[in-house]
Amino acid sequence: MCLEEGKLCRSHLMPQALYALCGTDEYDPVRLTDELMLPTSRQTADHLLCFDCEQNLSRNGESWLLSLLPTLGGPFPLLDRLMKQSPFYRDTTLAAYASATNPEIDVPKLIHFAIGIFWKASVHSWLGDSDEPRIGLGEDGEALRLYLRGQADLPKNIALCIAVDSAPIRLPGMLEPYQCSNPDFKNFCFFIPGMFFQLLIGAGVQEALSANCINANPRSPIIVEEVSKVVRGIMREQSAAARKTKKLLETTAEIEERGLSLKLGD
């Protein structure tokens, strides 16, 4: 990130503290791909950033947000903070809150957190057998790097949209950054427990998404909706043809014998 030579730390694509929110003391998280489903404690990490750049990400976003995310079966402090104020818009499926006027929401740190993860995915593959970045931002990746370094604002062709989960049972999982389908703009997404992030890039994007764009709309809107329901469906589709390992089948059977149900999707 700093473009200086030096010793690299073991960096995580998704902050390491998130993994504790996706498993229990008894069971490892389940990793899903389009080919395989398996319980594993493996984390997506590699030597990417120096200590100072790691501290930049921690200080300017990660440390603030990670303590506000939902624990398994526990509270969701960020949602509680949002709902202390009335939404400026509501319909049957979602509500929009003006985080800019909420003293308990640190909007710059929330944006920095999201941009940091998108940028890390755009400069490294995070796979041992590939040199291709996880997502392709092209020249726009440099704008994100400069923003993270505090050397520039986000340009007008970049819009960040954030949704917070209102589902009664929140999905304790993650989706690492991936390219989504959008007919008008380049679109990238990721999910962490309780939150869904979208980065959209293209001419006129802030005007087109002004109602939801946290980095351009003066209200800094945050959408509250049942994110878990949507993400369960995405995971179900992505893993429809995936092979389940023997360990996963044994773990699933053990959990269901205890009277619990494991279902992916609605």
Radius of gyration from the alpha-carbon trace, in angstroms: 19 Å
Order of helices and strands: EEEEHHEEHHEEEEHEHEH
Q: What is the tally of beta strands?
A: 12
User: How would you sum up the major sheet?
Assistant: 7 strands, mixed
Report mean pLDDT, rounded to a whole number.
Answer: 92
Contiguous uncertain segments of 5+ residues: none
SS-derived structural category = alpha+beta
| Number of alpha- plus pi-helical segments | 7
Beta-strand fraction estimate: 15-25%
Distance between the termini: 40 Å
Task: Characterize the quaternary organization of these chains.
Answer: single chain
Shape type: globular
Q: Strand order, main sheet: write it out.
A: 5-6-11-7-10-9-8
Number of domains: 1
Helical coverage, percent range: 25-40%
List the SSEs and their pairings.
Layout: E1 10-12, E2 30-32, E3 36-39, E4 45-47, H1 51-66, H2 77-82, E5 89-90, E6 94-98, H3 107-123, H4 140-148, E7 158-165, E8 175-179, E9 186-192, E10 195-201, H5 205-208, E11 221-225, H6 227-238, E12 243-244, H7 246-257
Parallel strand pairs: 3-12, 7-11
Antiparallel strand pairs: 1-4, 2-3, 5-6, 6-11, 7-10, 8-9, 9-10
Helix pairs in contact: 1-3, 3-4
